[in-house]
Amino acid sequence: RQGSSFAVTSPTPTSALVFDLFGAPTTTNTSEFWTIYAQGDYALTDAVTVSLGARYFEDERSVQAAPGAPVRSATFDSFNPRLNLTWDYGAGIVFFTAAKGFRSGGFNSTNVPPIFTPPPPTFGPEELWTYEVGTKRYLFADRLLIDLAVYYNDWSDVQQTLTIAPGVPIPYTANGGAASGFGADFAAQLEVSDALTLSATLGWTDMEYDTASATHAAGDPLDLVPEWTASISADYRRPIANNVEGYARFDLGYTDGSQNTLRNLPSPPFDTFTFVDARTIVNVKAGAEFERFEVFGFIENLLDDNGTTFPAVGTVTIPARGRPITAGLGVNVTF
Fold first, then answer.
1. How far apart are CA 234 and CA 284, in angstroms?
2. CB 75 within 8 A of CB 62
3. pTM recorded for the entire structure
4. Can you list the residues of the chain whose pLDDT is less than 70?
5. Mean per-residue pLDDT of the chain
6. What gap in Å lies between CA 38 and CA 4, rounded to an integer?
7. DSSP letters for 177-243
């Protein structure tokens, strides 16, 4: 046994107040949770290590709609195991990981007009099992790092936003449906010289709903999850005087378009499908770092990409958009 860890976290109360237009508190939410976890590593051989871990999580939540109103409470708990296998073959590693994730449930507002049926007072937790296999390897005298992973996600009891009646913009949360799918991540970093470093990433996700629910049909993609993402960057640094280092950086990021699906809203007047644009963002920055301060200039969104970052959904008719092209000068001082 090479090492282990064990810890207990004491209950940590948190609370939040929601204010109305006049500043008076209307809703108080409280969460008290504790967790216990342990992990142990064991060397099967000089090259192969197995790591086993587990976490138990319990979350006691309560909500009070207004001062003096009844307090509603519920407890959500989960046991989350994790397994990791690592093979160190000298020039790099190969790994496999299986782990379970958890998100607590919560409460819905039951204060709705009497002509509508109130939503369920609570919604349950959701769970995610993820399985990943990958490798990390250095090449060319450790100047090139390659990082590649392929994963599979299995998501159940998905928390989704519904409305209390078709076309009525009073939302609530409920568990519905399951989703799963594969994905892959690739990253590379090359030290061309002591001054210049190049980096690139590529991500692919192909998750979809496996079962039908009030908001989705089987085969619908996950909401607002792009299929492809990518980036490239170049970072150049070199001394230009005593205790002064000059630098220049260029980065380009690409995010594929994505879809948001709301099949429980009548179409028309609402759109069943709304979309986020594919976006390409280019940033440049150059400056100099002194012993105690830094001066720099920058241009963000050099191509002035005006694509949407969040769609118009339901009664929200104007989509969100990113920041337009922005240029500036800056100074950072270290005290």
1. 10
2. no
3. 0.82
4. 1-26, 167, 269, 314-316
5. 88
6. 7
7. -EEEEEEEEEEEEEE-SSSEEEEEEEEEEEEEESS--SS--TTPBPTT--SEEEEEEEEEEEEEETT
